[in-house]
């Protein structure tokens, strides 16, 4: 099933944060979209008020809007929605695989929140050290184990799923992590596999 007239709204610039996670899926699936940057200080308060006034009560981003004006919010819910809509990146008729992918996504949320907080405060040396010395290894060990459970670079082995775009973004594009993954072969394999995907070449170089 095709998706048309898609707009992706986010408060960080093109290619950053949770918006980038969704962009990877859209780019890989060759789904055309318009990226709409909403400045968090100058624009977001009035945009949020207008959404609520229009009876759309999810006052957060990322958010996508599709043909007909229908809106969907939340990074992972959006990715699951898109995956099911186009019939890609989501396990079909296998509850064990579906649970496995969803569980990794849940753990990835924890990792993203911690790593993003550190990435957004590069001058906070205490926070940086706490993450590097204590928290980072916990997450890297966990995801290296999880990505060893199927033969292949992705969470499900040779089949890419929506969660791989999320874990790739955390591991390879957030400053606190990207220089340390070389010591974690399963995470490194995921990163290289995503970077090698043909439909992502132009986006990753932008």
TrEMBL record:
Name of the protein described by the UniProt record: Glutathione S-transferase
Segments forming domain GST C-terminal: 94-206
Record InterPro entries: Glutathione-S-Trfase_C-like (IPR010987), Glutathione-S-Trfase_C_sf (IPR036282), Glutathione_S-Trfase_N (IPR004045), GST_C (IPR004046), GST_superfamily (IPR050213), Thioredoxin-like_sf (IPR036249)
PANTHER family named among the record's database cross-references: GLUTATHIONE S-TRANSFERASE
Gene Ontology biological-process annotations: glutathione metabolic process
Organism: Lichtheimia ramosa
Residue span, GST N-terminal domain: 6-90
PROSITE patterns in UniProt: GST_CTER (PS50405), GST_NTER (PS50404)
Top-rank lineage group of the source organism: Eukaryota
